[in-house]
Amino acid sequence: MVLAGFLVGTGYYFCISSESTAVGFDVIALILNKKKPKINIALTMYLINTCVLLFGLLSYGITSVLTGIGFTALQSLTLNCLLKRKE
Hints:
- The protein is mainly alpha-helical.
- The protein has one domain (2-86).
- Helices cover 82% and strands 0% of the residues.
- The protein has helices at 2-17, 25-35, 41-55, 57-60, 62-86.
- Helix 1 crosses helix 5, helix 2 packs across helix 3 (41-55) and helix 3 packs antiparallel against helix 5.
- The protein is globular.
């Protein structure tokens, strides 16, 4: 989970820094950030992904959802750190 979160966060960074998209939830975060630059892209992606994971709580169980939230947190933290470093 740790390695995957780091790699996916890095992949999102490469997409965003080259002004492209992964055609996922990052599109929503990028649109919101473009309209209001103070909106944090990584935090927005984390919140969207967490909401989606919570919808699957009854289907997949608490362990799967908590693992997903941990993965999403690592992914977003990695993305946020790389984006701040770019600035």
